[in-house]
Give the backbone structure.
Amino acid sequence: MKVRVLGLASVIALAFVVAGCSKQASQPAEQPTAAPAAPAATVNPATAGEITGTVKFVGTPPRMPIIRMGADPGCVKDSHGKLVHSEQVVVGKDGALANVVVFIKSGLGNYSYTTPTTAATLDQKGCMYQPHVVTMMVDQPLNVINSDSFTHNIHVMPKDNPQWNEAQTAGAAPIVKTFHHAEMAIPVRCNIHPWMQAYVCVFANPYFSTTGDDGTFTIKNVPPGTYTIEAWQEKYGTQDEQVTVGASQTQKVDFSFKAQ
Amino acid sequence: MREEQGSGLARTPRALHQFIVFTTACTFLLLVAGALVTSNDAGLSVPTWPFAPSGILPRMVGGVRFEYSHRMIAGFVGLLTMILAVWAWRREKRRWLRWLAMGAFLLVVVQAVLGGITVLFDLPSAISTAHAATAQIFFCTLVALVLFTGPWWQSDLPMLEEKARPTLRSVATATVVVIFLQLVLGAAYRHNAFGVLPHVFGAGVVTAMVAWSATIVLCRHREIAPLRQAAKLLLTLLIVQVCLGVTAYWAVLYQNQLAQPALLPVVITVAHVVNGALTLAAALWLSLVAFRLFGPLGEWELAPATVPQQGQAASLRTS
């Protein structure tokens, strides 16, 4: 009898060991954030410029599927009967493409940046994530809020940062998380309401912007130099442009994504 | 392995046999519930285990409906399996079958632990695949118990001789193994361990093995009704499974364009999963029947075997 109990306990223990190894294997090894090299300087606001522009969609915009929230009557109620569409591609007036993340991909010198203490926010409202795309810096806090009257679960699936999955009841305190490594397009899902999707983009520098409904973006306080600018859209991928910003200059860069 | 030398055959109490059948049916429903969880992407909708953050019974909406229903059915099946194991231990005369019933209970405990690990560690692919594979093994164990405790298995059947090579027993056993591996590949694909191509390739191997098994039965042992019926059932399930597999592939492609799981793709993929389980069970049934008729499992039930005279096999034609 003792042998049998020991055997059963061993199986259970083995299962946890395997899962522990799997869990550890699925997590990237925690590496200390590399200490920055001795900065040449902080960015001089007197000579900093701007990169601004517009992102447009060329062609007939795809029809976004309607989201049916009937799986949860609370969602139907909290959305006030509005017809909700997927936010995978949001095209506004004159082809303005929203939710495109534009950022400096390369060309930056060795500057030091202050990590914002103001948290980025991801809200769950009307059974949709707001905003659809969150942009933030490494080690900046992310506040996840539940403005709905029922429970959501937030499942964040990064590759270079630890994965997490937590339930958040109505009225609960914000869930506060940080990401220690820069990473693009981290998917966020709610497994209770599977239509809920968002992305978190984490940067090592402050040179990023997300287009709004008018398709425009502005990247401020850019030191003079030549840069590769990238625009990322969740369905259509990325596009790159080269831009040279002079002292106190505003440079305009436009992007366009075509129907595939 | 004969329990009672010359004292007649051991008989499982009819009520126990019926309870095992009921448990097996409930386990099939559990397989359906589990497939619904994956197809609805609801695996992490209740991130705590064994109960929900809000308590024993959460608000059953959205993905929670599928995930928590699966847990509740699993708990019920666990209870049934425990009762089955205790009942068999007390009432079943065949020692090997008592241990098999205990093995079924051990499997359901392992399965529960794996289920908890998948939730608590955010669905690691290897563990999720192991959870799916263990479900198949558990279901097959119960199907075997149904066969072993049924009246046909325990009846006075003549021992038959299988001279042709390869034997049906070896081919049928290999078919079981191949189908199980195919189910593991399918589970690995569903849980994002790797792509679909190994599973597609495996479908070809499974089709060949099932066709081979069925051909042996229909060519060599057509007159043996239990084998003939098992082979026809296996063939039918395979044809259905291949059709479902092709449809499921397109269903997944269609599903990827949508904002949320849709009813038709979910139904198709769930049907493909559970029909796969039935196909494995049917292959196992055929294999076990072959071992019962041609040995050595029959020797565990009967008096020392004798080579049947011509006409003795006729007793099986009307089985």
In short: The two ends of chain A are 66 Å apart (CA to CA). The interface with chain B takes residues 8, 11-12, 15-16, 18-20, 22-23, 25-26, 64-68, 71-75, 86, 88, 150-151, 153, 155, 163-167, 169, 189, 191-195, 197 of chain A (CB under 8 Å). The longest strand of chain A covers residues 49-58. DSSP finds two helices and 17 strands in chain A.
